[in-house]
Design a protein that fits this description.
alpha/beta, three-stranded antiparallel beta sheet, disordered C terminus
């Protein structure tokens, strides 16, 4: 009762019903969804069109210029209302800048990575024409170590069901008992959410969290093949879009650990990470180097995000670490000028380099 009155918490909804299995992609959003969802920050409305793309309550208004946005949960942005998402802000922003209507198609889906972006962009471009493709690469988990081009249909979320443990191993006890209990309590107990949020470091040390420390931040990964592999897929997306005469802008979104020093301290303590083994600028720097080598037009926003955080802007959520309303707004303001400059330009022939591995 005291928690509900003095420090009310957001209960979290587990909603596998808003996604559906899909060939090659693994899963995608269900079409014509009209519901609400709460991932831990607030309850928001969720609407999708006939193709499963997120839209606002009034649907999408037709306009002469079309922009396709593709990415993972940072573009799907289930933490805020659609009008407050990057895509929801980009349409009005570009309309005001260009002086004519701009229609934005939000193809972001939770859990996807660059190979899925390629497949989905190819599917959508085969049925409609766009004037710009924006590819959002989240540097917290989009830098792939292994490429999978054809994902069999499956559910995007794992629901844990209470069962009798098959052994006394800690991992088995967690999967059989603690995870199911967690799934129930986070949907029904504000007291549980209250203590869970305040015991983050302890839960990390006990491996009782879905949190992880991005391996991309470790200095030992500086020469790993993951950077080139991810850049190759991005270059393939650019080449595919160019075949349709569509210019592409690749946006590099940093993880909250790489932006906020307080968040980094919590994760470093919880996962027992030696700060000397970490380079917070490495993901942005290495991906930008690889993309530049392949002549992929890109925008890195880490420095802008760090500046905003340093003056008190809260760009990432406290419970759900995706972009807040302020984070989506800042990202849109940074992308908008480059997007406007690219719209209306024809996609020039792809320049080859010795490092290019795209199609």
């Amino acid at each position: 009762m005291l928690v509900r009155i003095i420090a009310p918490q957001q209960l979290i909804q587990i909603r596998p019903d808003i996604w559906r299995p899909a060939d090659s992609l693994g899963w995608t959003n269900r079409p014509n969804v009209n519901t609400t969802i709460n991932t831990g920050e607030r309850t928001v409305h969720l609407y999708t069109d006939s193709a499963g793309l997120r839209v606002g309550a009034g649907g999408r208004q037709a306009a002469p210029t079309k922009v396709l946005v593709i990415g993972d949960s940072f573009m799907e942005a289930l933490q805020v209302e659609y009008e407050q998402t990057f895509s929801g802000l980009l349409g009005p922003g570009l309309t005001g800048r260009l002086g004519h209507g701009v229609e934005v198609f939000d193809a972001g889906v939770d859990g996807w990575d660059p190979p899925q972006y390629l497949v989905r962009a190819r599917q959508l471009m085969a049925t409609d024409h766009y004037d710009l493709l924006v590819v959002a690469v989240y540097l917290g988990n989009d830098v792939i170590a292994r490429r999978v081009d054809d994902i069999p249909p499956r559910a995007p979320q794992v629901l844990h069901h209470l069962r009798v443990p098959r052994s006394l191993r800690w991992s088995e006890m967690v999967d059989a008992l603690l995870y199911p209990l967690n799934d129930v309590l986070k949907r029904h107990s504000q007291l549980f959410i209250f203590f869970k949020n305040r015991l983050q470091s302890l839960r990390q040390r006990a491996h009782l969290t879905a949190d992880f420390f991005p391996v991309e931040l470790r200095r030992s990964e500086a020469t790993a093949p993951r950077w080139a592999l991810t850049a190759d897929v991005c270059a393939e997306i650019v080449a595919m879009a160019r075949q349709h005469g569509v210019p592409t802008l690749t946006v590099l979104i940093p993880s909250p650990i790489a932006v906020d020093t307080a968040t980094f301290s919590v994760y470093a303590k919880g996962f027992k990470i030696d700060p000397g083994t970490v380079d917070l600028g490495q993901p942005t720097r290495r991906m930008k180097e690889e993309l530049d080598a392949r002549h992929v037009v890109n925008l890195a926003v880490q420095q802008n995000f760090m500046t905003a955080e340093s003056v008190g802007e809260k760009l990432y959520g406290s419970v759900d670490r995706h972009l807040t309303i302020a984070g989506n707004r800042l990202l849109e303001k940074l992308v908008e000028p480059m997007a406007a400059a690219l719209i209306g330009t024809s996609a020039a022939p792809l320049k080859r380099s010795p490092h290019h591995g795209g199609g």
